[in-house]
Amino acid sequence: MTTPKPPRPSFRKLAELSSVGLMLPSSIIVGLFFGYFLDRWLGTGPWLLLIFTVLGVISGLLSLFRAMNKYTKGQPPDD
Predict the structure, then answer these.
(1) Whole-angstrom Cα distance, residue 7 to residue 5?
(2) Distance of CA 56 to the CA centre of its chain
(3) Does any domain span residue 34?
(4) Residue 10 covered by a domain
């Protein structure tokens, strides 16, 4: 009698989960990029850089929470 092998995770799911770690830093970098260049173009000092950085952090956190919610939905909590 052979013992059943544990199911292997699909490569698609592994790729999606690995991208979760890049969501927050990439959103912050995009916010910094747009804020920096808009500040230079409009001459507004650090204000647009700060605003877009905060928006990037908020956007990254929302994306991260949505992705983690998607992957943890339907799984029982660890006790």
Answers:
(1) 6
(2) 10
(3) no
(4) no
> Angle at Cα 38 formed by Cα 20 and Cα 40, nearest 5°?
125
Q: What are the pLDDT digits (tens) for 14-31?
A: 777 778 888 889 999 999
Phi, psi angles (nearest 5°) of residue 76 = -70, 150
The amino acid present at 9, given as its one-letter code, is P
Global confidence as pTM: 0.72
Domain interval for residue 54? 42-68
The reply to whether 55 falls in a domain is yes
What is the total count of domains within the chain? 1
- At 79 the three-state DSSP class reads coil
Q: Are residues 22 and 60 in contact, defined by beta-carbon separation less than 8 angstroms?
A: no
